[in-house]
């Protein structure tokens, strides 16, 4: 659970109009180059996050079972997890929590091993080939640590993005879900309360998270590694003993006629 | 902490050929050392020779790992950066360092059985951690089943046995290689079935997609053929097994990232 005083962002999918103002503001404030992309038949563009695209909106459209059309948008970016797999996997301490619960990478220490890239369940860290280190959303740490809002939040024209303390943001999210339910969005929910120890970016959704390709039941990196060590230990013991048994018992049986 | 800025000119986001080659070298030579300690305790010459090979495997493998970093000159941060036992990458770096030192010691002078056993534990950790490293990530093909350590350890036994066979033909070795190859085949099959529901893309890429050459190359040339040839031409079978061991690491590493 994040500290109530931590920095946090609320993304309210029911208010988002998919205008990508946040995406553009992020590129501008953080001085990130444009991507050369192709039309893939979706509004999502760039199609995925990279070392110089730290936030990108995703779009989901289709028909509901009752024939009503839907067109949903979701923010794709770092969630600033409390038990962040990228931080756990980093062998140098370059990827770490800063004051206020924000996860950033220290570019001067990072060795470019990409453990964090592989570990993030949201695909939010990427390797910058030109610099040899990884890059990701910083929640505009340079702005928020001086009392300003992140660039994406500042640019949002519909109040779909809000910045504040975790306590405020969480209360807002709960209130918003209550209102949405009252208005008939029976599946309205908050994403990010339980995931990875609670994320510092909370989403208010009108549909089940899987509708937006958001992973449910994400496992923490410590648990994934613990399973691995346990399995490796059992495997080593079983294979060692098993092979020894097979080989030496045969040997013993044949011992007589050698 | 090293902060010198020297981006790797061949750096890329994928864990690719260098990682696969390192897994292969460490797994094969480490497997050979483990087998000689476990099954030929009386043959000190063999143990010391395989210690030398495993030492070279660890050194060359580590060099490949450094070569793969985005900031190769900063690799010392792995050791100077702090204490991160939850990061499998960090633990693995220490296993490599310690097992390298231990193997050199075993090679350089006659050592007690106990000392060789301790070094064997370190080597087993090197062979096993590579699978745990993959399991700590968020990639379903690597972490959805707990079988990766079984696969890597069984493959290390097969390939390590094949490496020993190049120096000495021995009935016991043949039985070892055949038994561990059979385990390897079963584990690989189970892993594919187990991960298919969540990592269909990866499994299909192996069976009929861009990685099919490596997968079927392993199954036919690097696994099936050597099993068949084991009775006729041991040296050829051993060489093919080594090729297979490399293909296995290669397609496992690549399939996780499709
Ligand atoms: S979303 Fe990914 S990059 Fe962001 S804190 Fe979580 S694991 Fe790290
Ligand atoms: S790439 Fe950098 S930040 Fe990511 S895990 Fe490696 S050292 Fe840490």
Notable features of this structure?
heterodimer, A: 258 residues, alpha+beta, 4-stranded mixed beta sheet, globular, B: 258 residues, mainly alpha, 11 helices, binds iron/sulfur cluster
Quick rundown:
Chain A is an alpha+beta fold and 258 residues long. Chain A has helices at 21-29, 85-89, 115-119, 141-144, 151-155, 166-182, 221-254, and strands at 7-12, 55-63, 69-77, 95-97, 103-105, 126-128, 133-135, 161-165, 189-191, 201-205. Chain B has 258 residues and is mostly helical.
Topology:
The complex is a heterodimer of chains A (258) and B (258).
Chain A: E1 7-12, H1 21-29, E2 55-63, E3 69-77, H2 85-89, E4 95-97, E5 103-105, H3 115-119, E6 126-128, E7 133-135, H4 141-144, H5 151-155, E8 161-165, H6 166-182, E9 189-191, E10 201-205, H7 221-254
Parallel strand pairs in A: 1-10
Antiparallel strand pairs in A: 1-8, 2-3, 4-5, 6-7, 9-10
Chain B: H1 17-39, H2 44-68, H3 77-80, H4 88-108, H5 113-135, H6 140-143, H7 148-165, H8 171-195, H9 200-208, H10 212-229, H11 234-255
The complex binds iron/sulfur cluster (2 copies).
């Amino acid at each position: 659970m994040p500290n109530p005083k931590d920095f946090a962002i609320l993304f309210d999918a029911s208010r988002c109009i998919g205008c990508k103002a946040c995406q553009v503001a992020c590129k501008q404030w953080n001085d990130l180059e444009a991507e050369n992309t192709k039309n893939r038949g979706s509004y999502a563009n760039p199609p995925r996050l990279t070392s110089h695209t730290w936030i990108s909106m995703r779009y989901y459209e289709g028909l509901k079972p009752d024939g009503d059309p839907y067109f949903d948008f979701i923010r794709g970016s770092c969630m600033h997890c409390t038990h962040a797999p990228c931080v756990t996997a980093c062998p140098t301490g370059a990827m770490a929590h800063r004051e206020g619960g924000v996860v950033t990478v220290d570019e001067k220490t990072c060795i470019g091993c990409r453990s964090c890239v592989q570990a993030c369940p949201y695909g939010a860290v990427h390797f910058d080939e030109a610099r040899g280190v990884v890059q990701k959303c910083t929640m505009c740490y340079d702005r928020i640590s001086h009392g300003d809002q992140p660039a994406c939040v500042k640019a949002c024209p519909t109040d779909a993005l809000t910045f504040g303390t975790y306590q405020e943001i969480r209360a807002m999210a709960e209130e918003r879900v209550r209102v949405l339910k009252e208005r008939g969005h029976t599946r309205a929910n908050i994403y990010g309360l339980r995931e990875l120890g609670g994320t510092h970016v909370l989403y208010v959704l009108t549909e089940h998270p899987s509708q937006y390709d958001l992973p449910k039941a994400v496992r923490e990196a410590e648990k994934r590694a613990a399973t691995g060590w346990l399995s490796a230990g059992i495997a080593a013991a079983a294979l060692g003993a098993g092979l020894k048994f097979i080989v030496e018992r045969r040997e013993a049986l044949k011992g007589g006629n050698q | 902490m090293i902060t010198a800025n020297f981006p790797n000119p061949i750096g890329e986001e994928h864990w690719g050929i260098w990682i696969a080659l390192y897994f292969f070298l460490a797994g094969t030579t480490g497997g050979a050392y483990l087998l000689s300690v476990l099954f030929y305790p009386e043959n000190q010459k063999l143990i010391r020779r395989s210690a030398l090979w495993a030492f070279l495997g660890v050194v060359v493998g580590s060099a490949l790992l450094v070569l793969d970093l985005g900031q190769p000159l900063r690799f010392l941060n792995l050791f100077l950066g702090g204490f991160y036992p939850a990061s499998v990458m960090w633990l693995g770096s220490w296993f490599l360092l310690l097992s390298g030192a231990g193997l050199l010691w075993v090679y350089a002078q006659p050592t007690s059985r106990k000392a060789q056993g301790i070094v064997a534990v370190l080597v087993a950790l090197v062979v096993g951690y590579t699978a745990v490293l993959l399991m700590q990530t968020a990639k379903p093909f690597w972490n959805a089943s707990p079988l990766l350590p079984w696969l890597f350890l069984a493959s290390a036994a097969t390939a390590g046995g094949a490496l020993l066979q190049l120096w000495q033909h021995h009935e016991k070795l043949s039985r070892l290689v055949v038994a561990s190859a059979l385990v390897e085949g079963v584990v690989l099959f189970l892993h594919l079935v187990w991960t298919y529901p969540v990592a269909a893309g990866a499994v299909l890429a192996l069976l009929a997609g861009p990685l099919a050459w490596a997968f079927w190359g392993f199954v036919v040339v690097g696994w099936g053929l050597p099993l068949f040839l084991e009775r006729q031409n041991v040296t050829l079978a051993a060489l093919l097994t080594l090729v297979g061991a490399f293909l296995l690491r290669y397609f496992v590493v690549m399939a996780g990232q499709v």
